Amino acid sequence: MSGQYFFMKLIPPRPTFAQDITAEERAVMQQHVNYVGEAFNKGTVLIYGPVMATAGAFGMAVLEMPDAAAVQRFGEEDPSVKAGLNTFEFCPMRVAQARSKT
After folding, report:
1. Buried b / exposed e along 24-59 (16+ C-beta atoms within 10 A)
2. What pLDDT does 3 receive?
């Protein structure tokens, strides 16, 4: 795929989310993991996962998509966002250097 790169941040509902996630929230987050995993397998998500920041964990992904509108749609279709659990923000990214996949 040839596109632009974007950094996406998935913002949880509270700083303690990783420590006190409920069973209902865990089920929604499993849907989120499946959704992002499908995009990873398609090659539009290059890397993703939780960031264990001292102020509270959050999700991150580096995406390769045609434009910001595609990223916006991707974020809005995330099951955790659709459920009102998480929010997201993103910004364009310039890749200075990346390791080869080989």
Report:
1. ebeebbeebeebbeebeeeebbbebeeeeeeeebbb
2. 82
Q: Is the dihedral of CA 39, 70, 24, 86 positive or negative?
A: positive
Per DSSP, the three-state class of 66 is: coil
pLDDT at 101 (0 to 100): 63
Please report, for the chain, the start and end positions of each structural domain, with discontinuous segments joined by +. 4-93
| Predicted confidence (pLDDT) per residue in 57-74, tens digit | 999 999 999 999 999 999
Q: With beta carbons less than 8 A apart as the criterion, state whether 6 and 63 touch.
A: yes
pTM of the model: 0.91
Q: Which fold does the domain 4-93 belong to in CATH?
A: Alpha-Beta Plaits (3.30.70)
DSSP-assigned letter for residue 12: P
